[in-house]
Design goal:
The chain is built from 4 helices and 4 strands. With 126 residues, the protein is of the alpha/beta class. The chain has one domain: Hypothetical protein PA1492 (Rossmann fold), CATH 3.40.50.10400. The chain has a 4-stranded mixed beta sheet, sandwiched between helices. Helix 3 packs parallel to helix 4. The radius of gyration is 14 Å and the shape is globular.
Length: 126
């Protein structure tokens, strides 16, 4: 059994600025989680730099095969509840896929982010 925890988060948006902000938020969250001993695989952290550098498509359909491979090799999925997560076609697909795979599903709420790259408080809930 794998011990990979897949980190889902909203990404695709009509604004490249919003997409960059989402990438930055996921990167910051992942940094603080890693410092606490919680390691995630985030498709956004992997895919965003490639998409920017090589001008790849960033619509949801571009991610399905890529994300499937990692979900199928994960033991759980945590959803980072950034603004827009409930409207995210990608996250809804990831949750549906996770349920089919019988993965543990958790939701992460950011409780406090002082914006100083030193303090981020969050909670993980079922």
């Amino acid at each position: 059994m794998s011990n990979i925890t897949y980190l889902a988060s909203p990404y695709t948006h009509s604004s490249k600025v919003v997409m960059r902000e989402r990438y930055e938020q996921v990167m910051k969250f992942t940094y603080f989680s890693t410092k606490r001993g919680i390691v995630y695989f985030s498709p956004i952290l992997y895919y965003h730099p490639l998409a920017v550098k090589y001008k790849m498509d960033v619509d949801f359909n571009s991610f399905i095969e890529f994300n499937s491979v990692f979900l199928e090799n994960s033991c759980s999925i945590h959803i980072l509840t950034l603004p827009g997560w409930k409207q995210s076609e990608g996250i809804m697909w990831e949750i549906k896929k996770a349920k089919l795979l019988n993965l543990d599903i958790r939701y992460i709420d950011i409780l406090e982010d002082k914006g100083d790259n030193q303090h981020v408080r969050y909670s993980i809930r079922p």
